[in-house]
């Protein structure tokens, strides 16, 4: 044991004061404190002071102690390998001694610190760790047991492969132990125990596979646990098992489906969401049709009901604010752009590459964030994300950690209905149409809105069976574009875009709907609500791709509207507008090459071109758009060739020159510039 005491009492006091001040709401003070704390990193003992505050000062405020631990965690993350040996030793020793702290916050912070050290080094470098944590599990002190389990859960999450491949094969001992704890009297312990084992289902860890029967037996006993966290982990386990060991579930499938039906309606949305993932996962399995058929009449109403916005969603979405076009977008609202290559410009923009984003876009509950993140588990299915432009071909389902843009119950239910409609096809319509009729004509606008989402979700799977109803439905939807609720108008844009193939190519209805829809969408492109503008612009891009030259007679009105939108739109929707203009050029080609059209279209684009600096990423969508226009206009683009050519060469040159030894240049500028040069060459 290594004992250490702060050498200077005033040094300790100084750090404590800084930690307390850093909790001030004043950002100026926060910045000053941050700088002071940074500067303390030059003292080798600073990290010892931090761990001392975290683990030893039990009378200090929890928030201050926890903050010391989190700063230490960040230091370890950045330069643990540079910590002197005795500092590392002291941190490890104190963490293990503090596992049973009476404060849940401190226990959690200690767990975070432990897992950070394991990921920065390795389990071999801390040989006593697993042994100590394991021995704490049987402690009569519930705090110690919970603290150890919390740390183990974090290690399982962050270092599952280390645990699996460790020469000492710790999982052979740990997994049976975890399974035994499924039946512990304390809910927090039960929850940790399942969460630990769940990390090893997808990788099919040998130690779990050899204990799978006991695992299932104990898991089934927890199905109706009173604790929502426990139920959430039970659902998650069953969903992963569908993918990994479905043959073990088949004998119990009837009870599992009934359980998931019930749990998909759980009062806790987080539990209902985990249960809802089950329908997405089972839809991919060959047994889906046989096992779900008898339950469709119960399942479909549950999924439809889950697609309604909650009251909280409406508040977050500011769904009652009709006009927000004058409110500038925040920087963080604008999705990072990734250049799209000319070779895959918008083929099947509406439904293939983009269907995930689309469903996601229609179902999302916030327009306040458009950060691209990978799809969450099975969320990579065909539906809309209210906050994202549906124009990105390769982005995941749904936004950043903003609670509203996360994968949620509404999105998951819509995605499940989408994939199930592709499995069962028109077979679901006899059950679904009566529900749909009631939803679409409901007096509560939130239910009506979710009915329109249902109709969009089944567009692909049920298109054949819906055909006789589509004239009436499309007629109804076009009227809904004028609804007084912005969220109804925006979802209607998306749903109509899902039926664009039928609208454009249905011989029997020759153009009965195309022209009215086109003009209504043009009105919505100029809507006073930003979310509606976005949805309308995206839907119009989809329609352009389907209709192609059928748009030609209306080019003047289309261009006038898009140019008007240029003056109206805030930063985020401008990106989608560029896309709609580029897609129009791709769709109508040389029909765009008329002096009056060029006169309309080019001035606002050139104005933007002159405004943007060479290092501004907003150039990407503009250059992509110009690339499509250059190809479409052919010789009509000649007046603009010289400046465009010159700037593209400059962007390429800049990228090459900035690639020194130390810097990695942003190659995207070069890629987009080369794409535009190729568009010029093609057009001329």
UniProtKB/TrEMBL annotation:
Where does this protein have compositionally biased stretches of type Low complexity? 356-378
Ordered alphabetically, the record's keywords are: Cytoplasm, Nucleus, Protein transport, Repeat, Transport
Q: Which GO biological process categories is it annotated with? A: protein import into nucleus
Family matches, as SMART domains: IBN_N (SM00913)
Q: Which GO terms describe its molecular function?
A: small GTPase binding
- Record's protein name: Transportin-1
Q: Where is this region: Disordered?
A: 331-404
Bias class Acidic residues marks the residues at 385-396
Q: Which family does it belong to?
A: Belongs to the importin beta family. Importin beta-2 subfamily.
Q: Give the matching InterPro entries.
A: ARM-like (IPR011989), ARM-type_fold (IPR016024), Importin-beta_N (IPR001494), Importin_beta (IPR040122), TPR_IPO4/5 (IPR057672)
Protein location:
Cytoplasm; Nucleus
**Which segments show compositional bias classed as Basic residues?**
337-347
Family annotation (PANTHER family):
IMPORTIN BETA
- Which organism was this protein described from? Rotaria socialis
Name the GO cellular-component terms: cytoplasm; nuclear lumen
* Coiled coil stretches, renumbered: none
Q: In what residue span(s) does the Importin N-terminal domain sit?
A: 33-101
Pfam families on file: HEAT_EZ, IBN_N, TPR_IPO5
């Amino acid at each position: 044991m290594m004992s250490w005491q702060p050498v200077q009492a005033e040094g300790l006091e100084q750090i404590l004061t800084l930690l307390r001040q850093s909790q001030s709401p004043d950002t100026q003070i926060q910045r000053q404190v941050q700088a002071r704390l940074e500067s303390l990193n030059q003292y080798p003992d600073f990290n010892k002071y931090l761990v001392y505050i975290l683990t030893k000062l039990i009378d200090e405020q929890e928030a201050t102690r926890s903050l010391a631990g989190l700063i230490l965690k960040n230091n370890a993350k950045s330069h643990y390998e540079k910590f002197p040996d005795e500092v590392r030793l002291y941190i490890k020793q104190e963490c293990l001694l503090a596992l049973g702290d009476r404060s849940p916050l401190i226990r959690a912070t200690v767990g975070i610190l432990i897992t950070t050290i394991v990921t920065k080094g390795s389990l071999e470098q801390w040989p006593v760790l697993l042994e100590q944590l394991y021995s704490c599990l049987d402690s009569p002190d519930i705090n110690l047991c919970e603290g150890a389990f919390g740390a183990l859960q974090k290690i399982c999450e962050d270092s599952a492969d280390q645990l699996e491949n460790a020469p000492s094969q710790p999982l052979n001992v740990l997994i049976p132990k975890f399974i035994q704890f499924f039946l512990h009297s304390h809910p927090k312990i039960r929850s940790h125990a399942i969460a630990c084992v769940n990390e090893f289902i997808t990788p099919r860890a040998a130690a779990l596979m050899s204990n799978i029967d006991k695992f299932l037996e104990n898991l089934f006993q927890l199905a109706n646990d009173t604790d929502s966290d426990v139920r959430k982990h039970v659902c998650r386990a069953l969903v992963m098992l569908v993918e990994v060991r479905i043959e073990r579930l088949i004998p119990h499938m009837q009870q599992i489906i009934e359980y998931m039906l019930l749990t998909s309606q759980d009062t806790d949305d987080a539990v209902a969401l985990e249960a809802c993932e089950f329908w997405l996962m089972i839809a991919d399995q060959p047994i889906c049709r046989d096992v779900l058929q008898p339950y469709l009449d119960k399942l479909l109403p549950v999924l439809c009901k889950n697609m309604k916005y909650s009251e909280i969603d409406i508040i977050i979405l500011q769904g009652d604010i009709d006009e927000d076009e004058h409110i500038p977008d925040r920087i963080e609202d604008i999705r990072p752009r990734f250049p799209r290559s000319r070779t895959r410009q918008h083929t099947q923009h509406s439904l293939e590459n983009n269907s995930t984003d689309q469903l996601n876009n229609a179902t999302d509950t916030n327009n306040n964030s458009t950060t691209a993140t990978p799809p969450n588990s099975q969320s990579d299915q065909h539906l809309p994300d209210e906050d994202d432009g549906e124009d990105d071909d390769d982005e995941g389902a749904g936004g950043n950690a903003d609670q509203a843009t996360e994968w949620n119950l509404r999105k998951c239910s819509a995605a499940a209905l989408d994939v199930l409609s592709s499995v069962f096809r028109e077979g679901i319509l006899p059950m679904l149409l009566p529900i749909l009729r009631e939803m679409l004509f409901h007096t509560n606008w939130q239910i009506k809105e979710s009915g329109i989402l249902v109709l969009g979700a089944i567009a692909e799977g049920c298109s054949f069976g819906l055909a006789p109803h589509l004239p009436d439905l499309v007629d109804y939807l076009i009227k809904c574009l004028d609804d007084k609720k912005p969220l109804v108008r925006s979802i209607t844009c998306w749903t109509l875009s899902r039926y664009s193939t039928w609208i454009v190519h249905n011989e029997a209805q020759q153009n009965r709907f195309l022209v009215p829809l086109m003009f209504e969408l043009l009105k919505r492109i100029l809507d006073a609500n930003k979310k509606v503008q976005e949805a309308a612009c995206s839907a119009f891009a989809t329609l352009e791709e389907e209709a192609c030259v059928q748009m030609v007679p209306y080019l003047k009105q289309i261009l006038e509207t898009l140019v008007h939108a240029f003056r109206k739109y805030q930063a985020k929707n401008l990106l989608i507008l560029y896309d709609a203009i580029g897609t129009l050029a791709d769709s109508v080609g040389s029909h765009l090459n008329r002096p009056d059209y060029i006169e309309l279209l080019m001035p606002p684009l050139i104005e933007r071109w002159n405004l943007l600096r060479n290092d501004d990423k907003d150039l990407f969508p503009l250059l992509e758009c110009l690339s499509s226009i250059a190809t479409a206009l052919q010789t009509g683009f000649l007046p603009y060739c010289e400046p465009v050519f010159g700037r593209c060469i400059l962007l390429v040159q800049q990228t090459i020159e900035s690639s020194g030894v130390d810097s990695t240049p942003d190659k995207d500028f070069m890629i987009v510039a080369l794409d535009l040069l190729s568009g010029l060459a093609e057009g001329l």
